[in-house]
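User: Um, any thoughts?
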Amino acid sequence: MRRYIVASHGKMASGLVEGLNIIAGSFPNLSTINAYVDGHEYGDSFKKAKELIDNYPDDEFVIMTDLLGGSVNTELMPLQSEKIHIVTGANLAILLTMVTSSEDEKTKDLIKRAIEEAKEGIVYCNTASAKDEDF
């Protein structure tokens, strides 16, 4: 089974999942890590992610973080392996693509597809119009 962890500074991770739940329902294979709130300290994100991973040793994980080079991302980078994938720049579009994907799709292919789809959704709307084919 493929599992997902969204990890962010503050409560962004929970906010993304809350938005996802409104759009697509809840996903039992999705967890959050809200860093630096409620007594959370540096190192706690790694510990929580490691605990989740250890609870499901046969599963594959995609960990989505908020900011490349940020402390949350940096803290989780050592977890990378063939079964643990780290993706940064987490947003609702990439999260929606990931969690609604088929288990049959290879994880690396899914990640590449989700990133491309999320990039297409980043648009400066002031310069786009409803007549634009890309809009």
